[in-house]
Each structure stands twice: as structure tokens, then as C-alpha cells.
Predict the 3D structure of the following.
Amino acid sequence: MKRLTWLLLIALWFAPAVCTGAETAKIFQEANTSYRTGDHAKAAELYESLTEREPGVATFYYNLANTYVRLGKLSRAILNYEKALRLDPRNGDVRENLRYTRGLLEYRVEDTRNWYLKATEVVLKYVTEREVFAVVLAVLFVFLIGGILFFLNGRGVFWNPWQQFVFVVLLLAALVAFGKQVQSNVIRDAIVMQKECEARYGPSEHDQVAFRMGEGIKVFVMDRREDWSRVLLTNGESGWVKDSDIAEVKV
């Protein structure tokens, strides 16, 4: 009798998760059906609800982005492709569709950054924060275990080639982890969501317009002040835009 009671308690504990998973799968299937039958507006609505339910699933953002391409909403498509890449950075389909969609934009910005900045961004884009920190912890663990074994055994050379190699790997992993932190929390990616966005010299509509941007352009948020953000473009231009004109790439 006691065993049966425990089994019932376990079943009740997991029942909400099972129901939620089943409902999510049902909505996903309905969204896919709507997309295939050409009802892209309904598909977009359903995929949006899925990203709110399960914000950690790259497929939902990817399908939502494909739907927005069909609807001609390129800025929303690019935003969701970027979110999908945050979760699944080595997905070739997402990268290819993002490249194609960017090619549809009317407004382009030349990337005049130095080669090492471009290379750094490429490296950081191919890994997730979780992966980087997992590598850092694993390498740190190996390095510490090696040091502990040396002191316990009391023989051999502590700073041997193997220890040096592990230390270099640890240092590189720590640098990548630092770069991911800067990318996520200091210099944040954002997408211009309006057809035309005015960047001003200061955080006010009374300030003069510095330049204009079109929808779908990627910018880097450098600073915030009330309802304004200072953004930096890949061509070096910088200005203040309304927060409502951009959307940060975060999941």
C-alpha cells in the first residue's frame, strides 16, 4: 500500500510536465501544418507562443524566422535567426537562411572593422556560453588534479610540458569565456526593427540626426539612458536610437 502511494505521488509530481510537453508538441504540429498550408500569419502566432513557452529551443526560433520571411517581415526574421544561433551556433541551415535574408535588405552597412575583431566575433559565435564555461571548468579541474597529484607524490617536475599545455588551454578557454561575457552583457547585439530608424548625436529627439538606418541592420548596444540606446555599427558610426526602434538578440 505504501509503495502504491509513493508511485501515485511520483506520477502526480511529473504529470504537469508531461501535460505541458504534450501541449507544446500539439502546438508545434499545428504551427507546422499552418506553415505548410500557407497560413503563415497563424503559424507565426503559434511559433511565437512556443518561444514564450520554451525559450531555450532553437527550432522554434528558426521556424518562426522562416515564417516571417514568408510574411515579408525581414527584421523579425533576422532577429529570430540570430536567437536560434545563440542556442544552436553551429547550425548550417540557420546560418544560410540568415545570410539569404540579409541579402534581401535594401539597406546595407559595410563592415570596416579590423580582421582580428571579425575573427574574434566568428569564434565567439560558434560556441554557447554554457559550452565555454563547461570547457573552462573541465580544463581547470584537470590542471588542479595534476597539481594535487604532484604534491601528493612528491616527485617529478610540476611545471612539465603537459602542465604547460593544460595551462595554455585553460588560459585560451578563459579568454573565450570573458569574450562571451562581454558579448552578452557589455556589447549586446541588436536588430533595427523599423523600416527607417534615425540615430541622433544625443539621447533626445531634440538632438540632431547623425545618420539613418533601415530595417534588419545589426547594431551593437554600447550604452543605455532612459528610453534610448547608444549603438555602434560595423562601419564605425555611432549614435543614439529609441529603444522601441531596436530589439536585442537575447533568449
User: Anything to note?
Assistant: The helical segments are 2-36, 40-53, 58-71, 74-87, 92-102, 115-125, 129-153, 161-185. Confidence is low (pLDDT under 50) at residues 4-19. The first strand starts at residue 188 and ends at 192. The chain has three domains: 2-102, 115-185, 188-248.
